[in-house]
Predict the structure.
Amino acid sequence: MGSLAPVPAIHAILEKALAGARLSPADALALITSQDWTSIVAAGHQRRLAMHDPGAVSYTAYRVINYTNFCDVDCSFCSFKDEIESDRGYTLDLDQIAAKTEEALALGVDHIFLQGGVNPKLPLSYYVDALRMLSGKYGVHVRGFSPIELLRLARKENLPLPELLAILKEAGLASVPGAGAEILTDRMRQILSPKKLSGADWCHVMGECHKLGLPGSSNIVFGSVETPEDVIEHLGLIRDQQDRTGGFLAFIPWVFQPQTKKFTVRHVVGWEYLRLIAVSRLFLDNIPNIEVSVLGMGKDLGELALYAGANDINSIVIEENVLRSSGLKTLGAAKKFIREAGFIPRRRTLGYEFGKYAEAETESALP
Ligand code: SF4
């Protein structure tokens, strides 16, 4: 990883960003290929301090319910899915989804994240019934469905995408994840997931969600054979989409986890992750929140990322079948982590609302 731009040029780019000017893709490429990572990280943190309460870091808690693992998309990095006709796969029925929701509520967690494989056998009524139950009977915020799940369901039901989204929203869908983006360049789609939707289609689906009042997050998953150019093109696609439709509340960098033999991951050096957090903060000037994945990156790097541009930890996840790692398992652990890193914890909703949880309630909700 060479330093393509001399240090004075890097400093000029950082000054430009700190003055509030928009960075070009060439600026961002110079940053992402520079080994002067301490300057970049310092600027990322400075920008974050100017945009958010300097003394606070936010967090949330949600339960992931992987409602089915049948999938016919065949991403090269995925060990979660089972073939459609396999006798090993599963689809949860409403009672099973209800039981998992009740477990979450008993722990003080009132946000549910529905994520599946792409199961062509499930009818629209399955999704509508689940959403009605979750939002009506249980009153939880439901985030759900990656763009490929939404696009394939619309095609299967022969519905225009906006019509499908309106039906799901009416049934209780409140927001959408940035799942399935990985890296959006055509070159990387061919390597990672040639049967998934293209980067342009991913952006289109997210834009339609935003227009219908379904906000969400965006992310990048790196640490395979992507180039710096792939990373910056990906960030540019996200920023351009945000300019068009708003709706991305946050951006979250993740690294690939080793899951399958046919997909090789590389070791992402700690400072490389921190540099990407900072470049995301500086380049994505229209996305307010940068989240650090303590679940994926571990606590030590997570603490440092809070001094590199991140203002939120992405956070307590109860049951995550796609990614197995040691994250923060309770609300108490999340608050302790943030305090030990030097900040005041602020619990938020998935929609980045802060009024819902009184601190006293947060203190007593989980051990
Ligand atoms: S990552 Fe998602 S879409 Fe890709 S194979 Fe796995 S479950 Fe299917």
Observations:
- The pocket of iron/sulfur cluster is lined by residues 71, 73-75, 78, 80-81, 117-118, 148, 193 (CB under 6 Å).
- The chain has one domain: 57-365.
- The two ends are 43 Å apart (CA to CA).
- The domain at 57-365 is CATH 3.20.20.70 (TIM Barrel).
